[in-house]
Design a protein that fits this description.
The protein is 6% helix and 56% strand. The chain has a single domain, classed as Beta Barrel (Maltoporin, Chain A). Strand 36 and strand 37 form a beta hairpin. It contains seven helices and 38 strands. The protein is mostly beta strands.
Length: 684
């Protein structure tokens, strides 16, 4: 077996003078060298080994009740669910199929401590947060690859996958910097797709109120050792009120190749959305419009025997055109906003096992770049906006992020202890290094009861919008510092054949938190680092597998409930907060799946929300003062007839036609009925 020759000078600086010869290259536009200190790139180049490899271990989580052998990705090395000293929520394929929803955003409305605030329906645009954090503080991953947008968290869920493409969703509650890196501030959500073995074709058609049309086509194809999955989705609607129409599509490929070097994981996708943005960012101008495009690709390898290596490369581009006036612009209007972000990254994650436990280490390099006519610093020479006529980018900014990780997990009888840290360097911070440690502990009290506790620190960089956005009612701040937090949590887990319970308490202290604030109704919203905000929360989850408890003939199949409470305390009170102090205080979700008759089934979801904070109330586009959010109950229902290959369904969201707002003045949809059919064909 060949030995690897490693150049131990891999910590040297790499110098890039050009970037692919593209005329919109930031490196060319800035007309200077960009120096990047990065372990991850060089390590990736030497990590491809010729060693043969057994079938790789993969991070899998299933909400089953026999959890001992199930692996989760809550640490940097694989760990069984029963040993995790954190709360990890999982939504599996059967739950996705049964839920009365048509988008990922709607599905996440039911998840523990997850706050989804939708501006546009059916996945058009939504802000996501966990445990009372802001929409910029949750990291989004697709099959373990970071897809978070550096321009703004409003774009984090612009993903090239549809709901029908998703096999599983893993939600890690609380800070996860030492696992996933910067910006996993209050939580991380990993969306999992996975090619199936064999050949299969699937078509899913949905039609509903407001001329909703949703078409999903997907196919699995096995070509030797290569598993291929390809999916296409198109969705459109006339909108439930004026200027809420939308039209979008996405295409996604995921391939797995088992080779002598290891398992290669390739994914690529494209998403396009155009939509009426009624009052999205200010009710003063309700006739807004937006179009976004997302392009994404990644390549990952799992290899090694005694020491497991997982190097990865990824690229994400996001383009956005925002129109304050969809038609009939005001005389003072200077034109639309155009943005394009490029994120390029590479990472390496490694781990090995000894008698002392599992040791993991790795690094990530990430380059975040933006071109815009609004955000960034003035460019020496403007460049053309791709895909637009007679439009140019006049501003740009680039930053480099390097992170090193180390973690070790001990298994001492009934005690599991996992400790580690992330060391982080960001080019915007004058070459300063910051270290963010963490420690997780769990103890198996009995065969079914476990106590857990953890201590973790985390950070989030300001987005380009935080730094640079200036508008009629907003003013950015290029001198912002990163947010930092310290979180302590603890609780209990109960698992047996038919019952799963998790309950816990957390306390988070956030320093230099970034928010859009103003001192009175007359002042502009501007970004500031708040001095300190303390957050205290309680979480409870219970899931009962009724057939295991009462027998398979009982008509009720599953009962799930979760409740989360979050309370924020600030050290300053002389300002109005737009985001950081506007949080979901109480959230309660109860769902029950039951048999109606033979193969006919029903799934009910009941949700209660009570939100802190206020919003600017407008009447006929005129500001009239601040209004408190009102608590509300929502009921959703899906009835479906299902066989191994066919599912016919009818869904009703907001069954009792409740009128409510959950984000500013944006009126949410009333009752919305849709019908769908899903058919799967095995191909020879």
């Amino acid at each position: 077996m060949k030995k690897l020759k490693v150049n131990h000078k891999w910590a040297k600086k790499l110098i890039f003078k050009q970037w692919g010869g593209q005329k919109y290259s930031l490196f060319q536009a800035l007309n200077r060298e960009v120096r990047i200190a990065v372990l991850a790139v060089a390590y990736f180049l030497v990590a491809g080994t010729n060693e043969a490899v057994a079938q790789p271990e993969r991070s899998e989580v299933r909400m089953e009740f026999d959890l001992d052998e199930i692996e989760v990705s809550a640490q940097r090395a694989p760990v069984t669910y029963s040993q995790v000293a954190r709360i990890v929520s999982v939504i599996e394929k059967d739950q996705i199929d049964a839920a009365p929803v048509n988008s990922l955003q709607d599905l996440l409305e039911y998840a523990l401590s997850v706050d989804i605030r939708q501006r546009g329906t059916h996945g058009v645009q939504a802000d996501i947060s966990v445990r009372g954090g802001s929409f910029d503080q949750t990291l989004i991953l697709l099959n373990g690859i970071n897809l978070s947008d550096p321009q703004t968290g409003h774009h984090n869920l612009n993903l090239p996958v549809s709901l029908k493409t998703i096999k599983r969703i893993e939600i890690l509650e609380g800070p996860a910097a030492r696992v996933y890196g910067p910006n996993a501030f209050s939580g991380a959500i990993n969306i999992v797709t996975e090619p199936l073995g064999g050949d299969q074709f699937e078509i899913d058609l949905n039609y509903g109120d407001h001329n909703l049309q949703d078409i999903h086509v997907a196919a699995n194809k096995q070509l030797g050792k290569l598993q291929n999955f390809l999916a296409f989705n198109q969705k459109s609607s006339d909108g439930y009120i004026d200027n809420t129409d939308f039209d979008g599509y996405n295409i996604f490929y995921h391939g797995l190749l088992n080779a002598e070097a290891g398992q290669f994981d390739l994914q690529a996708g494209f998403s396009s959305k155009a939509f009426g943005a009624n009052s999205f960012y200010t009710p003063a101008y309700p006739n807004q419009f937006e179009e976004t495009k997302t392009t994404f690709a990644s390549l990952k390898l799992e290899t090694g025997q005694k020491i497991r290596f997982t190097p990865a490369l990824y690229w994400r581009r996001h383009q956005d055109r925002f129109e304050l006036f969809r038609s009939d612009p005001a005389s003072w209007y200077g034109g639309h906003n155009y943005h394009m972000t490029d994120v390029l990254g590479s990472s390496i994650n490694s781990w090995f096992s000894t008698n002392l436990g599992k040791t993991a280490f790795g690094a990530e390099f990430r380059s975040e770049n933006i071109w815009s006519n609004v955000l960034g610093e003035e460019m020496d020479e403007p460049i053309d906006v791709p895909g637009e006529t007679d439009q140019q980018f006049t501003k740009s900014h680039s930053r480099t992020i390097v992170s090193y990780f180390a973690e070790h997990t001990f298994y001492l009888g009934r005690l599991t202890a996992s400790g580690g840290a992330m060391a982080n360097w960001i080019s915007d911070l004058n070459f300063e290094w910051n270290i963010f440690p963490g420690l997780d502990l769990s103890y198996q009290l009995t065969d079914n009861w476990k106590a857990y506790g953890s201590f973790n620190k985390s950070l989030r960089m300001p987005t380009f919008t935080d730094l640079y956005y200036n508008g009629p009612t907003n003013q950015g701040n290029p001198d912002l510092k990163p947010e930092k937090s310290t979180t302590v949590e603890g609780g209990f887990k109960v698992d047996n054949r038919f019952l799963h319970i998790q309950t816990g308490y957390y306390h988070r202290v956030g320093e230099d938190l970034i928010d859009w604030v103003r001192e009175s109704d007359e002042f502009l919203w501007e970004t500031r680092n708040l001095t300190k905000i303390k957050s205290d929360g309680f979480e409870f989850v219970a899931a009962v597998d009724i057939p295991t408890l009462l027998g398979h003939r009982f008509f009720i199949r599953k009962i799930n409930t979760n409740y989360s409470y979050n309370n924020l305390n600030k050290t300053q009170s002389d300002y109005l907060s737009n985001y950081a102090l506007d949080n979901l205080k109480h959230k309660f979700v109860f769902s029950v799946d039951h048999q109606v008759w033979r193969k006919l089934q029903a799934s009910w979801h009941f949700r209660f929300q009570d939100r802190n904070g206020t919003y600017a109330e407008f009447e006929d586009t005129q500001y009239v003062g601040e209004a408190n959010y009102e608590a509300f109950w929502l009921t959703d229902l899906k009835v479906f007839w299902k066989t191994d290959k066919l599912q016919v369904s009818g869904s009703v969201s907001n069954l009792f036609d409740r009128r409510y707002v959950d984000l500013g003045n944006i009126q949410q949809p009333g009752r919305w009925i849709s019908f769908g059919i899903n058919y799967q064909i095995a191909m020879k």
